[in-house]
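Appendix B.2, paired examples.
Example (i):
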Amino acid sequence: MSKHLPKIISREDAAKILAVPNIRTTIGLRNRAILQVMYRAGLRVQEVCNLTTEDMDLEKGFIYIQAGKGDKDRYAPMDWDTLEWCKKWALVRAEWFTKKGIKSDYFFPTLKGTPLNQRWLRFFFADLSKKTGVYIRDGKDKKEIHPHIFRHTCFTECLEDGLTVREVQELAGHASLNTTMIYLAVRPEVLANKMRNRAGADA
């Protein structure tokens, strides 16, 4: 069994990546919303590609993920920022497809209405790495980021922001709590700060 910790990026590097898409264009706004959903809701690549308009509850702020890993369904709540980006995209999406006379069930389709694919999303993230200079360190190697980095970063930040391990397990759709608990060890400086503050309080 692998003992390697998940690779993540800092909040500052995540912000650099989120700032890349040109949101004045249709594709740019779609891509910005995709990044937001992956970063703040922790969706897997194929889950993003599979999302339909009916899976997005933009009134209550939930994403219904059907047949995720292990063929399991789950709900992922959206924070306010993610909900706003999805609402912005939903409006532009509707205008675009109405103008073009195209029908599509997918929430994040290509501009022809067809579903996105994993290969494109992986290429997209690699391109973002090059444009922002954000990379991950894998042993001695410096590698381009990939979509799962956002998922790992999402759950790490959720734990840092006060969610319980059980809550993050439900958000992630993990079958085992042990899978979720590994994120507790990803950013040791957070634990170190808590320990130092504790020591100061005891002094």
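Example (ii):
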Amino acid sequence: MAEHYSSFQRGDWRWLLQRVTAVFLIGVLAFHFVLLHFVNHAAEISFAGTQARMDELGYFSLMWLFLVTATFHGVNGVYNALVNMGLGGTQRRIVASVLIVASVLLIAQGTRVAIAMSGLF
């Protein structure tokens, strides 16, 4: 029988955060689908409606947390998949650096858009 290998180690903070962010993302996605697909149908979604929702501090905060957790969850998953495939040494450090820079840029741009969409700041 083949040995199971994972770059995640039980008890490691990345292992724990991958699971915690997964649970959070499932909840936020459920909220998103209910609000934007059942309460408001696709034909009713408008730019003004999005601005009105983003004007609410609770909604704004939830969407910003969604951005940050989805970014971490996705990037952490991609990184660990690459490590599981044998990425190591200098290539591993380069990939980690590129993913960190891409994550920071994604979160910065997402934050800029969220702030522009809201009237909060």
